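User: I'm curious what two different proteins look like when written out as structure tokens. Can you demonstrate?

Assistant: Sure. I'll show them one after the other, since each token string lines up with its own sequence. Here's the first protein:
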Amino acid sequence: MKEIEKNLNGTGMRIGIVQSRFNTTVCEGLLAACRAQLGKLGVRDDDVTLATVPGALEIPLVLQHLAQSRKYDALIALGAVIRGDTYHFEVVSNESARGVGEVQLHAGVPIANAILTTDTDEQAEVRMNVKGAEAALVAIEMANLLKAAL
């Protein structure tokens, strides 16, 4: 049996990040943690492209354009959807996740989904550093896995 080993070497990889501007504090925290982890994995700042969008619902469309360009080894979605008093939370959470998943499957480019969905601002702030760093790890691991599997 041939087993593909986990590989977190991001040297030479090109990464696209799409970040929501809604819930700024949390999204900036996600981005900072993600960029720091990408650097630790060998990804150069010059090889990272950042596009910002108004909110989580706009993330999938920009991911799709980046994926279709074939310029990126992996993509990362960063955002925060925090529950309010209306059903809008469920719509945004579900539709942004569905959109990210569809882009990944149709384009064949790995996408790390770090769009947080929490009940409170405090929960999002607690999770932003871990999830931002995890997104970088997922993106690099999946890009290497797909390369090794070809």
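Here's a second, unrelated protein for contrast:
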Amino acid sequence: MTEEIIIAGFGGQGVLSMGKILAYSGVMQNKEVSWMPSYGPEMRGGTANVTVIISDERISSPILNAFDTAILLNQQSMDKFERTVKPGGLLIYDPNGITRSPERKDINIYSIEAADEAAKLGLSKVFNMIVLGAFLKLKPLVGPEYLHKGLEKSLPARHHKMIPENEKAVEIGKNLLKPVLVLS
């Protein structure tokens, strides 16, 4: 099993953190993992993306041109990465900030209104974990105990008190997914 993932959005949305938490969770589950962030010098407010590969086998290269899954959180990311999803692959997006919905007909597409839910809960800092929960519902690559360990490893010790809040956000995300196009 190898899963090649691109997560992309604005800096400040927790894109890189989501990738890091997923990667550390994979490491804690004894998987082979690659985590490769990419962001402009402006970081917060600019675009950011991260490639995460989780595999049972050695990973030959972290450089990818096509992905099994794309998690896209802004229009610029949709424009850039929608076409990079492998046929039959998965695209998850938050419609908040998206002006053009995905157009592909050969991939599975789901939406999640994570930004709205995070705002409603007054927990904007867990937006990315709501999205991660949606992804893990569709592709349970890491178990909950390993996600907990991944959170412990990737969050600074001063933020460990927020781990239960993050885990709750993951569970919320699993229930917010809306199918847009599901291939049979």
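A detail about the second structure: The longest strand covers residues 2-10.
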